[in-house]
Amino acid sequence: MEVFWYIAIAIVLAVFFILDGYDFGAGIIHLFFAKKEKDKAVITKSAGLFWDSNEVWLVAAGGMLFMAFPTFYASVFSGFYLPLIIVLWLIIFRAIGLEFRSQFKYQMWKDIWDKSFGVSSLLLALFFGIALGNIVRGVNLGDVHHGVSAHEGHYFFLPLWNTSFSPLTDHPGVIDWFTIVIGIISVVTLAIHGANWVILKTNSSINNKLKGIIFKLNIVLTVLTLFSLYLWQIVNPNSLNNFVDKPFLLVFPIIYFIGLIGLFYRKKIKKDEYAFLYSTLLILGGITSSLASLFPVILPSVNPVNESLTIYNTAAPEYGLSVALNWGIIGFILLIVYFIVQKRLLSGKIDNMDYGH
Amino acid sequence: MEDMLFYDRLQFAFTITFHYIFPQLTMGLSLLIVFLKGKYLLSKIEKYNNAAKFLMNIFAINFTMGVVTGIPMEFQFGTNWAKFSELTGSVIGQTLAMEGMFSFFLESSFLALFIFGEKLMGQKLHFLTGFLVFLGSWASGWFILATNAWMQHPVGYEILENGKFVLNNFGDLFSNPWLLPAFLHNQMASVVTSSFVVASIGAFYVLRNKQVEYGKLFLKTGVIFGLVSSLLVAFPTGDWNAKNVAKHQPAAFAAMEGIFETEEAGSEIVLIGQPNMVDKKLDNKIAVPNILSFLTHQDWNKQIPGMDQFKEEELPSNIPALYYSYHIMVGLGTIFIGVMALALFFLIRKNLYTIKPLLWTIMFLVPFPYIANLTGWYTTELGRQPYLVYGLLKTSDGISPTVSSGNTLFTLLGFVALYMLLGLLFLVLVGKTINQGPTPQTH
Ligand code: HDD
Ligand code: HEM
Ligand code: HEM
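Above: the input entities. Below: the structure tokens describing the complete assembly.
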């Protein structure tokens, strides 16, 4: 049962990053590459129509985590207190940027909200990567000093950074050189994904240019990926053991690399949907590989005193998990139905849509 | 420790108060929009469609605010109330997760379609998407109230040795006797808010002599819905809630009603008076004998336990705030019924649109349903103190053990600043929308 909910939540989270990922990415593209008002307008629209229904996947993941792994939810949300609250603020800025931009016609008004949307998308992408980096790196569970826990073994509190910015100390902060690299990988990945989305959904004048940009970003991503694997070995020498013990887990990294290689051919790809699919594989592979490398651990402990959090020692009892299965299945079916209805009705290029609004 | 608790509570109170300004309008207004849209489908009179679309513009702005202030609420259970989440997550995690699955998805998937899809889908489908948005928002109210009901009156659980609450009967979460009355009352109260908002916009148009046709439509709709919902809020739903509190939280009930001393026979109902916590009595009291006993038990002489019957630690922690909150809500409720009944009377006599003082009153009454809703929640939440889970888990035992008060103060200040900005934007944008009015723009 724990495994089932673990997978369900992983799927919901992955879907969140794939879906909201494209509108984060659209924000990054918008910030750096959109210069003409027409392009800006259509790119914000391509994110604006969908961000809300995409963000619910995050809300749902939060709710499911609360229900299925309450100890993990409590530990991680209070432990990453500051970065989480900052993420909330950024989410607010991004959302109002998208929603309120077109409320007034003044250029100044639009500029403010464009920046709000772009910058907060960029920072959110960075923070999400940093979060992933923290999870795979592990934290000082129990805030152990000299072998003594300051709290119960599953609680901790991370400062935003410590002065050395090193993941190798006893008390790593949220931001260190390892997590920053993962953060940048996340920004680049989502920028690629967002560029694919803009090409797919709009007729904006920068579409052709974007294809070249994707190619360049992809080179950067390849270098960063290899570099991060090397760093990861330094931070956590056991990080790849799971893949050695259970070779079938290698499908996840393979998914990632298929996406990565596929994207090098971006200019040749005729159907924009396929290109979008490749960047989807990239995100999917990246997240699942990281989770698979840890399984069944969900938050490693960097000290020897307190044991890592796993899906077993943080889960809610059996009864709750199994009744939730009943409504969970109905819920998932409904989700898929809504999703298909919505995407079908709002399919096609944004520019050509007639909203009657 | 003390100020950790204090800032956690302050932050929660501040952010939930701000959040709840928006969903109450979302839930009520979606009903009115569906009503107007339905009327258009039946009558094919363009006016109704334009009116619905206009309210939809306000709805969209309001909805955005609700969503962006709602996401912090969900995260705060984990960030600020980690111990509470750990101990009760396997119970209320159910209702919160279901809320995400069954209502937020429904709402947000169809909202974009409802706002942008009219030409894409045709009128019938458009009505349907509007209805689904309405359904989603009410379902969201249902699940969140189920969560709250469990905290007020825990059911279907057992407590393990390590102090964790574990669910052992899922069905109980929804057959909780606290839930249905609270849900109905709360939903009616949100219809009150939206009716007053719509009526107030109507009054504004009529008084300013612009968009008069729509002004009249809004006034009429607002007044009729407003009167019906105001009546339903008081009776049966408010009454039913009061009986529930008397039954399940008698100490909170005594404090709400301001009964310091138990009376021999029936209890009086207090209309006005200031709680004096030193002498344990009400100053400057105006009260009517025996009414409370009758309202609560349909028996003029039934004894109701006063605060003197309870031990100090059984009583709510902030009695004056609780007492005032409750009296403000009930007092406003009575005023609402009065004003709306008067308005309906003149509406039937066909001269409402010319009675300026009444129109001005309706226009300026708009903040008060919000106040009534918020004070209603304050009543509920303060009545529960000092517990998080009534009688079982102390609020002070629920906070995050590792988050220091300095950090909470930092984020609280951040929220205050950010929400000021949001509030300002909201007012500007809604003001602009109202100023433009429903007449179809040609562009
Ligand atoms: C427009 C708003 C509004 C109005 C006019 C009223 N209420 Fe109310 N009341 C609410 C809005 C509200 C609320 C915000 O919606 C609450 C908070 C929780 C809930 O379920 O509903 C509530 C709760 C609430 C409770 C529960 C308190 C607790 O849980 O401790 C009682 C006993 C009443 N109400 C009683 C009344 C009565 C007798 C009214 C007579 C006129 C009344 N309310 C008017
Ligand atoms: C239905 C969903 C709700 C849930 C699950 C909920 C839960 C909570 C929790 C966990 C706290 C913090 C602990 C505490 O101080 O008791 C709290 C406090 C509070 N809530 Fe609610 N709440 C809900 C709705 C509301 C609403 C809609 C309002 C007001 C508009 C509100 C007003 C307050 C206030 C003022 C406090 C602070 C009380 C105090 O600390 O003395 N609540 N609630
Ligand atoms: C502590 C309690 C609460 C939490 C954790 C919470 C959580 C949330 C979240 C996460 C959202 C955004 C959903 C989205 O992304 O679409 C939201 C919106 C909403 N909430 Fe709350 N909420 C709370 C209190 C309440 C209460 C008391 C009500 C009403 C009874 C309510 C009704 C709604 C509704 C109708 C929405 C839809 C959008 C809107 O607000 O306009 N919430 N809430």
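Note for the figure: Residues 212-397 of chain B form one domain.
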